[in-house]
C-alpha cells in the first residue's frame, strides 16, 4: 500500500490526488504517487510545477478544502 512507512511512523495517511498545504512554503499542492527511492517523504506537485517535490509529512496539512 502507498506511503505505508509514513502512515506507521507519523500517523498520517497521504492519498495520491488529495490537495495539501505546505506550511513552510505556504503553497498548495497535490499528492503524487510514492517514490520508492524516497519513501520517507510525501511527493507533492505544487501549483505551477511540472515535477513533484519531496516534502516531510509533518510539514503538510491534510484534509483541507481546495483554495478558491
Give a concise summary.
The protein contains one helix and five strands; from the N terminus they run αβββββ.
Describe, in plain words, how this protein is organized in 3D.
This protein has 68 residues and is mainly beta. It has one domain (4-61): SH3 type barrels (Roll), CATH 2.30.30. It is built from one helix and five strands; from the N terminus they run H-E-E-E-E-E. The protein has one helix at 4-10, and strands at residues 19-22, 27-31, 42-46, 53-55, 60-61. It has a five-stranded antiparallel β-sheet, with no helix packed on it.
Structural class designation = mainly beta
| Helix-strand topology string | HEEEEE
Label the CATH architecture. Roll
Could you please say which CATH topology applies here?
Answer: SH3 type barrels
Mean pLDDT, nearest integer? 91
Count, helices: 1
Secondary structure: elements and pairs:
Blueprint: H1 4-10, E1 19-22, E2 27-31, E3 42-46, E4 53-55, E5 60-61
Antiparallel strand pairs: 1-2, 1-5, 2-3, 3-4
What key attributes describe this structure?
68 residues; mainly beta; SH3 type barrels; 5-stranded antiparallel beta sheet; 28% strand
